[in-house]
Amino acid sequence: MSTLAASPTRTLQIRPLHAALGAEVLGLDLSQPLADDDFRRIHRAHLDHHVLVFRDQRITPAQQIEFSRRFGPLQIHVLRQFQLPGHPEILVVSNIKDDQGQPIGLGDAGHYWHSDLSYKEKPSLGSMLHAQELPAEGGDTLFANMHLAWDTLPAHLKQAVQGKRAKHSYLAKYEALRARNPWRPKLTEAQIAEVAPVLHPIVRTHPETGRKALFVSEHFTTRIEGLPDDESQALLGELFAHSVKPEHLYRHVWQAHDMVFWDNRSLMHLAAGCPDHLRRRLNRTTIEGDVPF
């Protein structure tokens, strides 16, 4: 565990979790100015642990945006109707409906394992999710360590995917989700054009650490370039199943005012869901990354 002085009265602690990834950040108030040296230590911890859980953050949306921007430019989600009013950088993730029965946020975000915005030419570096209102039960978020998934992949599968690319599409399961949740909006032609499919390497190299990771997901990855459909689907199925083995996972049980910051270059994540009648609302910012290689 590493420590550093966050203020004259508080000591910041980075405490690794007892899982395949993740660390808690304690003793830090992100509503206060963050010194450059402190930021560098947090950045290093994020690279080392892939998920940071900042406890008890009573911050405003503007403060979340400001902290997020220290890691890079922010990406605006295609579903602009779920932006936080006055703060387009924030996507509201919520199952709450307003007085007219309309959703205030994206209620089924994370229904399938995925890496945020992998369908973009420059997928996300990372995402920050800040708890605003939590259900009394359920609502956990699971994370899968895709570096471990690559490191432990059987040799024959490593050989099968080396040098290959896969197609990522935002539309892959969109209509299936709309069928389950009729309030999920129909995309306009302009929105569809904004999320045109892309090809990315199946094995990507982390641009800051040099570590290799699998970069496929059941939500957005649709096929492997150059393979017949049946072979592509069979191989993707093996990769998906291997990636989410229990020994690769961390399950985050949310506490009030948690803010969780994960590395989309290193991980997939999944929303475990909660009962429909229990309210859940979180604010998400997403940081732009690099073209995978």
Unreliable stretches, pLDDT < 50, 5 or more residues? 1-9
Q: Could you state the order of secondary-structure elements as H and E?
A: EEEHEHEEEEHHEHHEEEEHEEEE
What structural class do you assign from the helix and strand content? alpha+beta
Record the strand order, biggest sheet: 1-2-3-4-15-7-17-6-5
User: What kind of sheet is the major sheet?
Assistant: 9 strands, mixed
Beta strands, count: 17
Residue fraction in strands: 25-35%
- Give the name of the CATH architecture: 4-Layer Sandwich
**So, the CATH homologous superfamily?**
Clavaminate synthase-like
Number of helices: 7
Question: In CATH's first tier, which class applies?
Answer: Alpha Beta
Mean residue pLDDT: 94
Number of domains: 1
Q: What characteristic shape results from the CA principal axes?
A: globular
Radius of gyration: 19 Å
Alpha carbon gap, first and last residue: 32 Å
Per the CATH scheme, the topology name is Double-stranded beta-helix
Secondary-structure map:
Blueprint: E1 2-7, E2 10-16, E3 23-26, H1 36-49, E4 51-54, H2 61-69, E5 83-84, E6 87-94, E7 124-133, E8 141-145, H3 146-151, H4 155-161, E9 165-168, H5 174-180, H6 189-194, E10 198-201, E11 203-205, E12 212-214, E13 221-224, H7 229-243, E14 249-252, E15 259-263, E16 267-271, E17 281-288
Parallel strand pairs: 3-4
Antiparallel strand pairs: 1-2, 2-3, 4-15, 5-6, 6-17, 7-15, 7-17, 8-14, 8-16, 9-10, 9-13, 11-12
